[in-house]
């Protein structure tokens, strides 16, 4: 019946109470969206029951079967029917929705699943001398019967959504659903390092295939988390991550966050937890982005596993049907904590570039080609990463190489006696410049290779930021102002922010038609291609969304500006210049990576080099 029909018939609609089965099916639509959401609810129940080991099995991507077995405290036989009725929970006292310490609290999950599949719960309560089982099929609850089970609870959910074909149609392939299940398990496994998890695919029956396993971790919180993250995100991640441990106004932040040089092309590996609950929260993701904005280009994303803990009364977990979002009473504090803690940790690690960078370099050095390791965090194009040039000299005769190195020292006027003392510095003494972009320095126990362009860019950027924080970037007036032709739209956009660009050392005015006139540029840049600079700034402005002001973008713009002031690759440098650059890098925070998260240098220890030559 549509609206016009109703008007014509004049019949008043009657309000009826829905029966329990219908109400449960409606609730299920929100709670159980796909097999993975059923797995999430069941595993959360097992964790809430203090289980130490949880095993999850699924068949056909969870559509045919989901079975969760735990060794928790179980459910008393006489309570089984209650577990299946709506709004029945053992987890909150009376009506106190403000003080939640468990994953569950709504008492909705089991009845919802019972409404959209065939559900059975077998359980033996701690201390009971027998186990019991109850089944529910499309909402019809059976009677409690005796059963055999040594300990804990087994919940089986079969034929999910068979009774609701519309929902079944929206499910993805078995593979995609299985993937989503594994993702849920991994998130919960990160939140609970002391619990052991096994995930099996039992499609086709039998024991099936173990898809994921994480043994219970022991030790203090950080040690346990470290072990668990190594298992789930890989040893590479923990080797290249910073431990975070900070507090602000009663909110704590702990966990691990990757170095900028260990980043990914999408925000797929950012695991955030609030009071142990995995969440996908825009506020928190935004804070993460803000914390790294200085170190990563917009298309790179850090890998993190971070845990916010706060008194339960200061966060509302009851704002999302699947409990995937939360609402902070003071969102500003949470955001500020994330940004400042991460920035602080990153600043302290300024000199550390990802160890996988060095490993990748070593891999490139090795004479026989080895099977490629899956170093996903360094998906960079070849241009910035000169693997080829390392092997080239190998093809020349040895005599020739020796003669060449002698020439190098001569040509650069390097006095080896002076440089001896410089080797004690972390970045050592410059010995040569290769391919007019790479500085080779000798340290007391190894070799450092610096990408001079990337390094200089970072130094200029840090200087610009310092000047900006003081009295604004020092400007230099152009002898002949430069006129740049733009589109009308671009011209207007640029002039709109002209006042905000002055503190950045840029004075830009309108110049008839669609042109602008550039009068001053940042002094630090020296001679600069003003048209290219303006176009880069316009690119940056194009990404401004309505809620952002140009002030939010200052750092991004400075980073673009820095790019223009950098020593381009292809410039020869004298020994003093090179050493000065190394010393400046040592004194500058964040100099281990350029503004795009690429490393500015790599270090090979003598140990590594000896290994290459089979001496170790
Ligand atoms: P909630 O978790 O919100 O309380 P559920 O419908 O998921 O609601 O579960 C209802 C009740 O059943 C829980 O409060 C708990 O007492 C009990 N229960 C569910 N699963 C388990 C389990 N694996 N072990 C012990 N008790 C359980
Ligand atoms: Mg629950």
Please provide a written account of the structure.
This protein is an alpha+beta fold and 616 residues long. The structure holds adenosine-5'-diphosphate (ADP) and magnesium ion. Magnesium ion binds at residues 41, 44-45, 104, 109.
CATH superfamily of the largest domain: Histidine kinase-like ATPase, C-terminal domain
Could you report the average pLDDT, rounded to the nearest whole number?
A: 82
Spatial separation of the terminal alpha carbons? 83 Å
CATH top level of the largest domain is Alpha Beta
State the total count of DSSP E strands.
Answer: 25
Low-confidence runs (pLDDT<50, min 5 residues)?
Answer: 367-411
Taking the sheet with the most strands, its summary is: 9 strands, mixed
Strand fraction: 15-25%
SS class: alpha+beta
Number of domains: 3
For this entry, give a set of tags.
Heat Shock Protein 90; binds magnesium ion; elongated; 3 domains; 616 residues; Ribosomal Protein S8, Chain: A, domain 1; alpha+beta; 22 helices; five-stranded mixed sheet; Ribosomal Protein S5, domain 2; binds adenosine-5'-diphosphate; nine-stranded mixed sheet
SSE inventory with pairings:
Layout: H1 3-9, H2 20-31, H3 35-48, E1 53-59, E2 65-70, H4 80-83, H5 109-115, E3 118-124, E4 131-137, E5 140-141, E6 145-147, E7 152-158, H6 165-170, H7 174-191, E8 196-201, E9 209-214, H8 221-233, H9 235-239, E10 241-248, E11 251-258, E12 263-264, E13 270-274, E14 277-279, H10 282-292, E15 301-302, E16 304-309, E17 315-316, E18 327-328, H11 331-348, H12 355-365, H13 387-391, H14 398-411, H15 416-422, E19 429-434, E20 438-443, E21 446-451, H16 452-469, E22 475-485, H17 488-496, H18 498-501, E23 507-510, E24 515-522, H19 530-542, H20 550-564, H21 575-587, E25 601-605, H22 606-612
Parallel strand pairs: 1-8, 13-16
Antiparallel strand pairs: 1-2, 2-7, 3-4, 3-7, 4-5, 4-6, 8-9, 10-11, 11-16, 12-15, 13-14, 17-18, 19-20, 20-21, 21-25, 22-24, 23-24
The chain binds adenosine-5'-diphosphate and magnesium ion.
Residues 41, 44-45, 104, 109 line the site of magnesium ion (MG).
């Amino acid at each position: 019946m549509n609206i016009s029909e109703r008007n014509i018939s004049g019949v008043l609609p009657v309000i009826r109470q829905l029966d329990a089965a219908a109400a449960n099916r409606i609730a299920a639509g929100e709670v159980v969206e796909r097999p993975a959401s059923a797995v999430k609810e069941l595993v959360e129940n097992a964790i809430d029951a203090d289980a130490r080991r949880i095993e999850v099995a699924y068949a056909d991507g969870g559509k045919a079967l989901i079975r969760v077995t735990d060794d928790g405290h179980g459910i008393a036989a006489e309570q089984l029917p209650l577990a299946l009725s709506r709004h029945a929970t053992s987890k909150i006292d009376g009506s106190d929705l403000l003080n939640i310490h468990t994953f569950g609290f709504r008492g909705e999950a089991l009845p919802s699943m019972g409404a959209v599949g065939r559900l059975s719960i077998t359980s033996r309560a701690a201390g009971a001398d027998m186990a019991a089982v109850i089944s529910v099929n499309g909402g019809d609850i059976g009677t409690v019967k005796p059963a055999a089970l040594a300990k804990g609870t087994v919940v089986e959910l079969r034929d999910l959504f068979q009774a609701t074909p519309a929902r079944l149609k929206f499910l993805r392939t078995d593979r995609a659903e299985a993937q989503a299940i594994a993702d849920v398990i991994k998130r919960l496994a990160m939140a609970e390092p002391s619990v052991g998890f096994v995930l099996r695919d039992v499609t086709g029956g039998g024991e099936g295939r173990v898809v994921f396993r994480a043994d219970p971790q022991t030790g203090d919180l950080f040690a346990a988390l470290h072990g668990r993250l190594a298992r789930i995100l890989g040893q590479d991640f923990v080797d290249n991550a910073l431990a975070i441990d900070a507090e602000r106004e009663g909110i704590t932040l702990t966990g691990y966050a990757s170095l900028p040089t260990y980043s990914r092309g999408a925000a797929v590996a950012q695991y955030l937890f609030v009071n142990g609950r995995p969440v996908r929260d825009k506020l928190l993701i935004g804070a993460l982005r803000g914390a790294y904005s200085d170190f990563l280009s917009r298309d790179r994303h850090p890998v993190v596993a971070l845990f916010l803990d706060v008194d339960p009364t200061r966060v509302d977990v009851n704002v999302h049907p699947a409990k995937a979002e939360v609402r902070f009473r003071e969102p500003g504090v949470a955001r500020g904590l994330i940004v400042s803690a991460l920035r602080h940790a990153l600043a302290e690690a300024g000199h550390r570039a990802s160890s996988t960078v060095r490993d990748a370099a070593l891999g490139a050095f090795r004479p026989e080609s080895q099977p490629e390791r899956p170093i996903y965090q360094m998906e960079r194009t070849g241009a910035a990463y000169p693997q080829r040039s390392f092997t080239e000299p190998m093809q020349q005769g040895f005599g020739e190489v020796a003669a060449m190195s002698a020439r190098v020292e001569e040509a650069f006027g390097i006095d080896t006696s002076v440089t001896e003392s410089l080797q004690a510095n972390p970045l050592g003494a410059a010995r040569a410049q290769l391919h007019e972009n790479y500085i080779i320095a000798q340290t007391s126990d190894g070799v450092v290779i610096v990408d001079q362009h990337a390094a200089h860019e970072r130094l200029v950027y840090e200087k610009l930021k310092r000047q900006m924080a003081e009295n604004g970037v020092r400007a230099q007036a152009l002898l002949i102002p430069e006129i740049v032709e733009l589109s009308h739209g671009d011209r207007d956009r640029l002039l709109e922010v002209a006042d905000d660009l002055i503190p950045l050392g840029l004075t830009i005015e309108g110049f008839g038609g669609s042109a602008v006139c550039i009068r001053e540029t940042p002094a630090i840049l020296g001679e600069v291609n003003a048209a290219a600079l303006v176009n880069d700034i316009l690119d940056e402005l194009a990404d401004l969304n309505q809620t952002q002001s140009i002030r939010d973008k200052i750092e991004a713009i400075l980073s673009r500006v820095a790019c223009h002031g950098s020593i381009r690759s292809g410039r020869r440098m004298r020994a003093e210049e090179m050493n000065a650059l190394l010393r400046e890098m040592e004194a500058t925070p964040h100099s281990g990576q350029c503004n795009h998260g690429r490393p500015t240098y790599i270090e090979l220890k003598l140990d590594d080099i000896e290994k290459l030559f089979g001496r170790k």
